[in-house]
Amino acid sequence: MTVPFLPTLSTFFIVLSAVLVAVGWWLIRQRRIEAHKKTMLAAGVSALLFFIIYLSRTVFIGNTSFGGPDSLKIYYTVFLVFHIFLATVGAVFGLVSIWTGLKEVLPRHRKIGPVTSIIWFFTAITGVAVYLLLYVFYKGGETTSVFRAILGY
Ligand code: HEM
Fold it and tell me: Where exactly are the transmembrane stretches of this chain (predicted)?
């Protein structure tokens, strides 16, 4: 079985980011503030790497359509939209969590931190599910890029 390199790499970074958030949460429960900060910033970098890879692939290579049976397409699409929704909300909450953490707005940080972490866990789990559905369980459909679509080459 062969899987495409860039989607595999970007999915790896989402999973790594979620694992780092889990470790960061565990660290703060041990009151290890500096280690918590470093681990959460590393989780942010990992999420950013995911986003950069995903975005460059979308622009330069394209998005791949679902290659499974037509009867499953609607469920896949709804699930994909749900995942994108979680990722977007998670990114906004992530930025607010990093901001409140660095600025030491701690009462708010303590409230939003666990919510961000849980949203991020679900983002990673649904992201892996999308990856499996798109490239592993079924063979990916057509890939079309914004550039190719516009320039027609
Ligand atoms: C990068 C900068 C960050 C700094 C400097 C920072 C700092 C802190 C500090 C000092 C606390 C302890 C608050 C207290 O109990 O007084 C804390 C708690 C916490 N932070 Fe962060 N944090 C950062 C990023 C994040 C991020 C990005 C997340 C989530 C993805 C997060 C999740 C949490 C959680 C879950 C708690 C424990 C809340 C509780 O149960 O009381 N932190 N953080």
Answer: 6-28, 40-62, 74-98, 118-138
Q: Which atom of ligand 1 is nearest to the CA of 120?
A: 30
CB distance 23 to ligand 1 below 6 Å: no
Q: Per the structure block, which two tokens stand in for 35?
A: 């280690």
Average pLDDT score, the chain: 93
Has residue 62 got a pLDDT over 90? no
CA–CA–CA angle 129, 90, 100 (5° rounding): 150
Per residue in 10-55, pLDDT (tens digit) is 999 999 999 999 999 999 999 999 999 999 999 999 999 999 999 9
Nearest 10 degrees: Cα torsion 96, 113, 123, 13: 80
Q: Ligand 1: distance of its center to the CA of 40 in Å?
A: 8
How far apart are the C-alpha atoms of 19 and 27, rounded to whole Å? Answer: 12
Residue range 5-151, CATH number: 1.20.120.80
d(CA 26, CA 10): 25
Mean pLDDT on 137-145: 85
Collapsing DSSP states into helix, strand and coil, what is residue 122? Answer: helix
